[in-house]
Amino acid sequence: MNYDPSNPLIVQGDRSILVEVDNPRYAEARDALAPFADLEKSPEHIHTYRLTPLSLWNAAAAGMTADEMVDVLARYSKFPLPTNLQADIAELVSRYGRVRLERHEDKLRLICPDRPLLEELARQPKVRAFLGERLDKDSFLIEPAHRGVLKQALIAVGYPAEDLAGYTEGAALAINLRSIARTGMPFEVRDYQRDAADIFYAGGDARGGSGVIVLPCGAGKTIVGIAAMALMQRSTLILTTSITAVRQWQRELLDKTDLADDQVAEYSGDCKVIGPVTVATYQILTHRNDKKDEYPHFKVFDERDWGLIIYDEVHLLPAPVFRVTAQIQARRRLGLTATLIREDGREGDVFSLIGPKKYDVPWRELETQGWIAEATCTEVRVALPEPLRMEYAVAEWRQKYRLASENPAKADIVARLLEQYAGKQVIIIGQYLKQLRALQKAFDIPIITGQTPNTEREEIYQRFRTGELQQLILSKVGNFAIDLPDANVLIQVSGTFGSRQEEAQRLGRILRPKANGELAHFYTLVTRDTRELDFAHHRQLFLTEQGYSYSILDAGQVLEPADAEVA
Questions:
Q1: Which of 6, 81, 187, 493 has the most other CB atoms within 10 Å of its CB?
Q2: Distance (Å, rounded) from C-alpha 253 to C-alpha 249?
Q3: What end-to-end distance do the CA atoms of the chain give, in Å?
């Protein structure tokens, strides 16, 4: 193969890949690399990706071969590929599916035609505990209750199982999609949403029925879930992040399907009803009065004969829900998310218990097609006022981050941006209530926090949706599953350390397509020469993964009077 020194990739023997951002082929190389490599660093000029076992297995589960991965690397590499790399990729990719779980009468069996490998796995303490009697030279009997924990054990030792054991069908439920929504608007499932649902369902085959769909915020993940429900025609449990998200799912289900109001129930802190379709919050599932108690609301998993369980925002799935999910592997499971990154590092558990990534579309591809708004991302660097510099210098390590985040000089930038975007739908979002309440007082803007009653939240959100209210301050409750379709501008005044998942949610708040085709604007305010700047670099990884350029401005550049009219 001919290698071209003008190409953007430098592929290294330790499975890291350096990518030149200023190269003319950067964008196409990044998009080709993204399905099977993880982005680790994204400074201005050279980005670093890494081939990890999980990134390769996710790609393999989505149908990509080792040869296709090597071809991408060779096509965009400046230099010949390291001699070990092709063999390394082939070996790791081949591990997916070498071990299979299949149905065996009323139990399961673990099959591995590679006898030495099976013997090796059977001697692994993590695996051995879940193996039943030996059935033949290639397989062991497995108790159905061990299906989830065995898959966790196998991925921990580096051999992810392909689960072909099938599913219980669940209680039948007629669900039809409307062509005219209840609101009177035409409704049609978009091509990529239909593809995602079809790939997940796989015609009812055992190779479908469990997995994760990765789509941008604003791309209609809820519709993918509803389309999957319409394919399956089964009673469904939907788990999501908040009361607001529950209500959003209920609105969408009743608007776009022929389900009756009494068929879509809510199971939350406010209302505990089980119906043919039940939407529950993670918070209620993981609530218990004492840390030593069992989780009383886990019974919702057994209340009905569910045919499908949908995990919304699966990257936020609380640890206790993994435990119960390990016990319900006979139910079909669909995860929906904008990013597979978890801050707790439990991506392997998502892979083994919910399922591998089945479908994903780059954000910029949907932006090009007009399904999500084009966005500009800007970091504004603000100096710490002189009186606070000494306080920052002597502060404890963790307190330094808070001092930088709550930098009062950020209020001047907020004031300038509110002036610049007067007449636009603007959200200010942050981590610290003291900071947000100061901004509320300074600019007389409504605020929603975790303490805001749900009825009041809904009323404020509705005013924002209709345009009656044009400016809104949100605490962390604004990160997740809120339907704010007309937000044009998001100003992030503080964030959760280096959370890439949070950046995904926050950017998603403004990515619904604008009726007039105008740009969405995402600003993040960061205090220079502090820990906040270090964490901001980590959050930028997410934007870079999705193909967004990230311009950096000094506070002085923003505070200068604008000569040009806002786009």
A1: 493
A2: 6
A3: 46
| pLDDT confidence tier of residue 143, bands split at 50, 70 and 90 | very high
For 367-559, CATH gives: 3.40.50.300
CA distance 232 to 173: 9
Per-residue pLDDT of 531-558, as tens digits, reads: 888 777 766 666 666 666 678 899 999 9
Other CB atoms within 10 A of residue 280 CB = 21
- The kind and range of the H/E element at 456 are helix 454-466
Query: Both tokens of residue 419?
Result: 């002036």
Alpha-carbon gap, residue 60 to 426, rounded angstroms: 41
**CATH number of this structure's domain 100-164:** 3.30.70
275's CB contacts (< 8 A; 6+ apart) are 262, 263, 264, 265
Distance CA 487, CA 465 (A): 8
Per-position DSSP letters for 442-455, written without gaps between them: HHT--EE-TTS-HH
The model's pLDDT over 50-87, given as tens digits with 9 standing for 90+, comes to 999 999 999 998 889 999 999 999 999 999 999 899 99
Q: Which residues of 210-219 are buried (b: 16+ CB within 10 A; e: fewer)?
A: bbbbbbbbbb
Q: By C-alpha distance, which of 428, 431, 439 is closest to 404?
A: 431
- Rounded Cα distance, 39 and 173, in Å: 42
- Residue tagged 């999501």 (tokens): 240
pTM passes above 0.85 = no
Element (H, E) at 85: helix 85-95
Identity of the amino acid at 415: A
Backbone dihedral region of 292: left (phi > 0), alpha (psi from -120 to 50 degrees) or beta?
Answer: alpha
Superfamily for domain range 191-361: P-loop containing nucleotide triphosphate hydrolases (3.40.50.300)
Task: Name residues whose C-beta falls within 8 Å of residue 53's C-beta, 6 or more positions apart in sequence.
Answer: 92, 95, 158
Per-residue model confidence as pLDDT tens digits over 105-138: 999 999 999 999 999 999 999 999 999 999 999 9
Return the H-helix or E-strand segment holding 500. Answer: helix 500-508
Tokens of 25: 């082929």
8 Å CB contact between 270 and 244: no
